[in-house]
Specification:
The chain is mostly beta strands. The protein is built from two helices and eleven strands; from the N terminus they run αββββββαβββββ. A six-stranded antiparallel β-sheet has the order 1-7-8-9-5-6. It has a five-stranded antiparallel β-sheet with strand order 2-3-4-10-11.
Length: 121
Amino acid sequence: MIDQLRFCMLPLLPLKVQEAKWDDPVLTLAGPGWSLTVLSPWRVIANARLLYSWSQPNVEDLVWELCGQSILDVGVQSPVAPVDPVLHLSGGGAIEIFSENATDPWVVRLPEVTFVGSPTA
């Protein structure tokens, strides 16, 4: 599924993040013509270290740091969980998403296509 997502995203990259919002338990990122909604666990990393994650206190204040950055690429986070994407950011970091269960998916909406990722996908 991530290969299909990447194929559809490539012509649109970079995707500018104009809105970044944490409304527990939902992370929303959006820009012109696209959006990402995450109901499952996620984290932001850079230089092989955790910057912040969904479970951190006051994470709603940290999510704002994503505004103004762009998604430059998307890949498979781990061969163990091939439905879990990693979104590479222009600021040098990345967002890793963990598909926990089928009722808490991640959703990417692009022009003309929507992707829903869950462990059963």
